Here is the input.
Amino acid sequence: MAVFAVVGDLRRLRLNAPWKAEARGGRLPFVHDAWRLCCAPDACVRRLPWDRTMALGSTAEAGPAWLRDFFPGYFALVMGTGIVAVAARLLHYEALSWPLFAIALAAYPVLWAILLARLALFPQAVMADFASHERGPTFLTIVAANGVLGSQFGAFHMLAGLLPLLFWSSVALWAALVYGFLSAVTVRIAKPDLEHGLNGAWLLLVVATESLSLLSSLLAERSGVAPPLVFASLAFYLLGSMLYVLLSALIFFRWIFRPMHPAEMGAPWWINMGAVAIATLAGAQLMALTGTDAASAPLLRFVPPFTVLLWVTSTFWIPLLVILFVWKEMQRGPHGYDPGLWSAVFPLGMYAAATHEYARVAHLPFLEPISQALFWAALFAWVLTFIGMCVRLLHPRRPSPG
Here is the structure.
């Protein structure tokens, strides 16, 4: 994938230079090549000429437009629905948990079928998305959906025999997607600035990595706490946490020191909270492992205090996100359904499930009301998003003429 992305970039650089960029001062400076455009400190590019629209403009691929433009992060539907189902199950809302479980389970193969059809009919569109700073990270929702699916199997005590297949396929997907995407965006010649290239979807790197920790812990629990699986779970838990440190520093800088318009405050920014919430759940599952061998026990001793740090970090984000999204809605006004809204459902459901599990294994019952409150917020967000999706499916937008 990285090789195709680089070849596409070089072709577009040859065919479309020179370009113009809109400067903040109001003048239009001439830009001789992509390197100068990317590095110019006074360039504020509103619509980058090397984004996916240019890649799609020259393709001769034929097929339905909805499939060509299908959002690659739609596996967040499985993530959001599945984790709300898990939270409902953990909190003993059985009448709510089973329908949600069924919807997530049904959506998973449908989304795989759409992805494979898109790969077959529109490979260039898929490659353009994969090499995009904006859309590329959303492919990691596939790995995260696998992790949530495994958590559902564990919570509902069903299909546990599929966990080994789910784990190893997720490891392979994680390696292909993470290293493929990071290689593609690293070797590109033309790159967007921080404001246009960084969004909350980048934290799916954390979410996908922590999903592997969840699957490792579930397998370890069912195989008698096998030391290699315990070590793998701990390793992915720590790697995801380190990736969060790296990315959150960039995100904090982008939020505080770069302009933020209401339209840029998209739902994926909720993953700021969701990424640490899933790390909290991974830590809680590690704490719940009993009967660890003598070699693993010392490694797990620091997990409880570190999980406190993760939980309080995820909690820190919630008031700030609420304030900023209220500001966004007041400034922007009503707007319709967007598939990225599932990126807001998932963090709320994950926080509810993670808080419940952490309170249980750490014997902190006073945290339970927080879990209950966030569960109902997550369910409310799920209902609104699901209704919006159904309305969009029944009344799709018509493409504008020309």
In short: The chain has 17 helices and two strands.
